[in-house]
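Exercise 7. Predict the joint structure of the components listed below.
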Amino acid sequence: EVQLVESGGGLIQPGGSVRLSCVASGVTVSSNYMSWVRQAPGKGLEWVSSMYMSGRIDNADSVKGRFTISRDHSKNTLYLEMNSLRADDTAVYYCARGVDDLYYMDVWGKGTTVTVSS
Amino acid sequence: SYVLTQPPSVSVAPGQTAKIACGGNDIGSKSVHWYQQKPGQAPVLVVYDDSDRPSGIPERFSGSTSGNTATLTISRVEAGDEADYYCQVWDSSSDLLFGGGTKLTVL
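Solution:
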């Protein structure tokens, strides 16, 4: 069974940093198209960042220069390094496995909550 | 940048058919995917590539596209189908993009 488990969320001060982790089982992170998607309280889904098997990275304009996606093959883990956090980054952050020729996400984690507040 | 437009809400009686629209410029030329999200839960893929269903998704869920509109159709609606539904595409100007979501209410 494919499973993705996110962690690392919490209460962060504005301007602060945090690193989210997504540990995968039943699937190899480095052999898949992996993404982070977020959902602000009471709002819809917003794509954040994706990493292809090749290592190519795409980022949403709203996070360019502040967020960095990466992976560790030995730990089979996807990361999202988040810097210069703002109040509007407050959201549940989901890790998802996707299919990179059609760009859909077929496996999702349960999410981890990041709250940016003083 | 590309924009996907969904109605905020759709209501339907149990046993009837629900149709949820997703509008976008020439969306018929793109591959459209649909997700179901129940309160407090992660999204679940219910239709991919316009009209294909992942394993485990009931045949009651179907998708279609034509011109500027993609449609998710849920036949014989059940109380358990009450959820938010999101369409999603990939576009060269916007990368991966979701519609604003539609809340399906089962009356």
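Discussion. The first strand of chain B starts at residue 9 and ends at 12.
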